[in-house]
Amino acid sequence: MHLRHARLFARLLDWCPGSRLYGPYHHGGRSYFQWMVRGDVLRERLVPLLDALPLEEIDEHVYERYQAMKLRYGL
Fold first, then answer.
1. pLDDT, tens digit, for every residue of 1-29?
2. What is the DSSP letter of 2?
3. C-beta of residue 43 within 8 angstroms of C-beta of residue 51
């Protein structure tokens, strides 16, 4: 995500201790960060946060992709 989202990433790092923020990167005229969440942090911290949101009401496409990801990776 774009550098302007730095405050959001700071919050995500607080909500998901053990996640990692990489960057900023500058490539192809873009400047961005990459946030990585894996393993226990993904299963025990991020998934419960996302499951608590009304994703289906907010964005049906995102909800369907999220459900498919959970199924594919056994989350």
1. 888 999 999 999 999 999 999 999 999 99
2. B
3. no
pLDDT in tens, 37-55: 999 999 999 999 999 999 9
Residues 55, 75: Cα–Cα separation, whole Å? 16
CA angle 4, 8, 9 (to 5 degrees): 95
- Nearest by Cα to 46 from 25, 22, 23, 20: 20
DSSP 7-64: HHHHHHHHHSTT-EEEEEEEETTEEEEEEE--HHHIIIIIHHHHHTS-HHHH-HHHHH
Distance, in Å, from the CA atom of 41 to the CA atom of 21, rounded to the nearest integer, reads 14
